[in-house]
């Protein structure tokens, strides 16, 4: 379990490459992160991470919540480690069942239905939780950073972690766009709506989204360069555009699916009916599609439902929208980090040109 | 249970006013509808209705589905009534448990949680179902229309039923807009986001929606006129605009709630935690809002969740979007039914004006 | 010519009704405004107004521009009047050619074409200008307010001037919406596009806008009440919604016209060609519409051009967008001035309800 | 001057590469196109093209307009060439002043102002016109295709001309996006608005658009392949997405500039004032920006005006919107030409998967 400042999962790979970055603070931190990387690799560990302090009063910053009592902080520094209850700049890893760690989970989005009834939620639900550090002891060898807020603040940009992490995210978002394009296409075909202009406009929108995602990734990789740590790093400006673009367009995906299915998402019995021989004739007769049998169409529409109506689908949309933070704030970061001088200079040249 | 052409619930009130409309087809139909109105009133009956034939192949019309086998139709005309399996123009009422009626329901959107955990779904879930008429006998005295497709097709517009029904719908949609305005306001206050310009823009959008809804209703009622049946009828052009406007703007409501709550919809434990004395201190500490205690904030956010993330909320959005039919088709009907000649004439006058 | 704080044109009517409001500051101000009202009425004067200080640095407020040198201010107080070069709270009127007043006009949007070629710009262009007060003397009898910033700041809301002014604005905007509905309808008919679903969707949008505007006005007037000055005042919440709604939807109007006309706005000769007998046969043949002769269609499309492509049309769109100020700021004012307590209370009641 | 079916400008390059394509119809066509290519190259000719038949009645196709009288067609086939008045499948080139050719031009968008007052229109206005073929003789050696409608219809896709032409278009649209990003940045800086979140959101939108355009081009070129004519052809699916994406997002560009400039586009004198020594002090004082002198700011805002308000700017927006045809129709073409089978197959695999 890493700190609220950055995440163990993301520390692992940089851990191999950049022990010197951690060692800038303390040589043992460099050693710790390398050891942890090897430990995770050899034991095939899965790491999760804490991301942000709980939301209480968003008109003040995270570390100011409740006068600083809210986010995790160090309450004791011992010979052999530290005890955590608060905010400070640090990075560490700890096992999920360490004494003092508690999880406050949300209600599951898998309502207990079968793979037929909840094809996505039954397989892909991932829990969100508030993690509480109630005087948790972190041994010295799992501490990767302590103090050095200026180092911590620069972690993502200095080490290239932001670019590498975004590359992985864009891979995921392309797959999701493709999923929605495939799903919308199957639905349109199954109920014979693919000839309508407004349906084609929506499918075209999904095609464009898939191709834009693919092109952003391709261009970022083609223009990758060795960074100062000796690692190939995809072009950041391209990936930064991708992560500002996707959260907004992804909100359209479930809307498109809903528009395609319409009442078909309401008149939708479940697996119990499909397996019931008394009911099957009605499903065969009244719920058939243009190209699918009744049970096949119910199965396809259950997938549509879990991608556009269920709590699982809505949490997915929310997750993508806020993945890198509030888009309103991200815009400012994009503007400040992007080199606009070349395009600005061309405007000044045009204005200065004598005819 | 009425036919797919119009709905018993809507027949009841016009039934009192317009027996002569039904009597145009047959005097006994006028008598039947009046008797049914009185029967429903005296016995305090709740009527539901069937709306549309099942969706199979949307590239052909409802009555052409599967060569006409799909929608309900009359298979036998007897001395004492009719037997239903198909499409024809008629109106009738029948009890929900009449022999031969079967319902194919969708999975419930109330997942079994408490009023705390599912504050809307636990109270307001209403079932959707496919209704199957398997040789259902309808006695003569419950038949309100048979044959006369030209009368049937004109029912909504000729009798004023469309205007009266839309007035009721607009009442509902204003209440929903107000619900979202109130909810968004409570959330913004509870987590201290009400000072941000982009949050204020969203609240302003909800205020404008509430006031537009209210003004449309007010103007329609103020300009009501007696129709040819002697009944006060709100101004149709105004209500017709309202029913074309609301389905689109209503899609924004859950999006606004999601944007306000953000991660607060993910870090959201349930009633079991709030009632667990071991967990309450954590909820008190880490899930408090700026102006609410932890349990109060969890309760408010559960409502936000059920209004913007749950399957219940998404089905609501879908329901409003398609309430009167596909907005793409409704636009054509609005255009064709609206008197644009006065505004067109003014353009022609401007073009003809000599200076 | 009034100050930058409020406008002579708007002072005139309240001047009749509210001399006591002005008299709160000084009895002679009450007398002055009444006299000016009568003077304007008897001499049939047209008043214009200055609205805002020049835009220099929008990251500071108007009165802070260039350390306060930018906006008009009083540089001398004499026995018989004041001399204006700066910012203070005051209201006055002055003739447009008073010594020391200079106007810096923008380039005209009427390019000198005929009524045929520029049907709107040739008739309705209204000049915008920066007004410079270079030590302008304002005699005592034309001063309506001096000092008393707290009175000045409350002028619009306290006197009902905001509501009366907005009522006039909404009248204008309804007429504009109707103009675009009429124009779009004439175009659609003339080139035979009125059967396409996406064209109908755009016409339906214009119908809905016309009806919403009309309903907002109707509801505001129906719910008018006598204000504390004994004047009937339309319902402010309704009009406030109207003025927050229109600036955004009006941006769509020229876009719709462009979409309808497409290449017809490019292949568009002018009056010189229509009057040239050598060219008329080509225009008759190649520029005819489905329902119009070539010259008629050219005339209609010239109007479409001046409503959707010309500099005149774009300045109109900009004018409506910023009429009451930056919509981003107006949203905050709407939120702060609207009574949300009733809808918020209903949320709290729902949360408190025991089942 | 080429036919309405395809354009001389685009014939030139393929002319070199694909004489065999033309020769499929007739060996002399292959020879003609090669000769014309060399003639154009050696004489440094600029070719323009006709694009579409005039708009009359858009509810029927171009060739059905006025019973076929409207579009160009062959009225005589002679030994030494053809005489043109009509529609047929052919391609040819002819000098602009050939006997019988007439142009019906639109009014110029350059209003005669200086480079200062109309920085874009004075330099970059390009005329649109209806071209009339009044029995125009085309000699045999300038005919590249005659008859063979099936060859003509496949020209763009079969020869790769669509991809090559789109590559050129995307180059242009990237430059335009960069222009608007540079312009918006210069404006924001000049009046001190770059710190506002909603301004940053708009700049971020422009950055994302620039980077998406760049990535689409980069990816299309990186994945170029030799086509069957031995020519490197950029990846079509990527470019096809680009040309469906840009027409819509480009409509936002002038809107963003307007929002940034606001009243600054109204209080905007011209070069005559800037050159007038009596007026310059007022411009220096009252029209200065945060970082620019008055005259500099007026010059920058004149550019903003010509990019967002003038008839020139609106015609640009219209031009981009309809460049490849009506976006509503283009969507259908994109959908039909895109291989969705791989993403559809993955949906079917998911549905078929047993857990």
Describe the protein in words.
Four copies of one chain form a homotetramer. With 355 residues, chain A is mostly helical. Helix content of chain A is 53%, strand content 10%. Chain A has helices at residues 8-17, 19-23, 27-43, 121-124, 149-159, 161-190, 197-222, 236-249, 252-261, 271-274, 280-286, 294-308, 311-321, 327-337, 341-352; strands spanning 73-78, 81-86, 90-92, 101-105, 129-133, 136-139, 143-146, 225-226, 232-233. The first copy, chain A, has a three-stranded antiparallel sheet with strand order 1-2-6, with no helix packed on it. Chain A has a two-stranded antiparallel sheet with strand order 3-7. The longest helix of chain A is centred in the middle third of the chain and has 30 residues, at 161-190. The first copy, chain A, is globular and about 75 Å long. Mean pLDDT of chain A is 88; it is low at 1-10.
List keywords for this structure.
355 residues, mainly alpha, three-stranded antiparallel beta sheet, two-stranded antiparallel ribbon, globular, disordered N terminus
Q: If helices are DSSP runs of H or I spanning 4 or more residues, what is the number of helices of chain A?
A: 15
Q: Based on the structure, what is the oligomeric state of the protein chains?
A: homotetramer
Mean pLDDT over all positions of chain A: 88
Report low-confidence residues of chain A grouped into runs of 5 or more: 1-10
